[in-house]
Amino acid sequence: GAEHLARIHGTEEDRVNCPFYFKIGACRHGDRCSRLHNKPVFSQTILVSHMYQNPIAQVIAQNGDPASLDQRQVDEDFEDFYEEVFEELCKFGKLEELNICDNLGDHLVGNVYAKYEDEEHAAAAQKSLYGRFYAGRPLVCEFSPVTDFREARCRQFDEGTCNRGGYCNFMHIKTVSRSMQRELERMFNRGRRDKSRSPSRSRSRSRSASRGRERHGRGHSRSRSGSHDAPKGESSRRKGSRSRSPSPAKKDRRSRSRSHSPRSPARGSKRDTPRTEGGVVEKKD
């Protein structure tokens, strides 16, 4: 009956719905799968397919040797990518999780999963990313059924014992350091607090200015209005101090990773698509 169907939904016993799509949000059979892929019309989680350009996958595609890669450079480039994506996606709301697959299989390679605190935030992100480009490639963004990543991730990979390698059908989630994760979360929380406080500060300044004009007349109001230029500068300086200043080591890492990045065009070359500072570009005309 209905109770039995509900119990087996998304499990291996379910002969109608694909358990891998239900748990992972992707299936190696794709459209050829014999079971249904029930794509949600809304979700807390969005999937941006193949957004991360896995350097190992790129080397393998060119019949190269992955062992030739500089792992330190790979990790530094990944941190830059993670930071770009985190900052872009946080514009739409608070992220509960940002998971990027390190798998090599066609259905999982480079997949970016972003789980928001609220479905409305996920919907805003999905709508905004639709039709945009990253590294010259169109972004394919859709809602994902995955909301519990404990079922999606490979436990053996997390323990360092997965013998299936990059072609495992469960998520091999590539992580950044805990210190970087905390830094990004602090930056988001600080930005949200500043955003919520700024309207009240401007209202209080305008009220004090109007009271000053009423009490002291036009001449004094001119001097007061002139003094209001200082908080603007102070505010901009404060804003500048709030922005994260990377350490000299990180600045050096950034300059090296940018110079080696495949997204940076050679001098005099012509971009196929315009790019914003954050890496995610606007829609083509």
UniProtKB/TrEMBL annotation:
Region annotation (Disordered) maps to 187-285
Show the Gene3D superfamilies listed in the entry: 3.30.70.330
The record's Gene Ontology biological-process terms are: mRNA splicing, via spliceosome
Name where it's found: Nucleus
Boundaries of each RRM domain copy?
44-146
Answer whether the UniProt record assigns the keyword Repeat to this protein: yes
> Keywords of this protein's UniProt record, alphabetized?
DNA-binding, Metal-binding, mRNA processing, mRNA splicing, Nucleus, Repeat, RNA-binding, Zinc, Zinc-finger
Stretches with biased composition (Basic and acidic residues):
226-237, 269-285
Cellular component terms (Gene Ontology): U2AF complex
Is Endoplasmic reticulum set as a keyword in this record? Answer: no
The record's listing under InterPro entries reads:
Nucleotide-bd_a/b_plait_sf, RBD_domain_sf, RRM_dom, RRM_euk-type, U2AF_small, Znf_CCCH
Which Pfam families does the UniProt record give? zf-CCCH
One GO MF annotation is: DNA binding
Q: Which intervals hold domain C3H1-type?
A: 12-40, 148-175
Point out which parts of the chain are C3H1-type zinc fingers, as ranges: 12-40, 148-175
Basic residues: bias regions: 189-225, 251-261
Q: Domain of life, per the record?
A: Eukaryota
Annotated PANTHER family: U2 SNRNP AUXILIARY FACTOR, SMALL SUBUNIT
Q: What is this protein called?
A: Splicing factor U2af 38 kDa subunit
* Organism field: Phytophthora cactorum
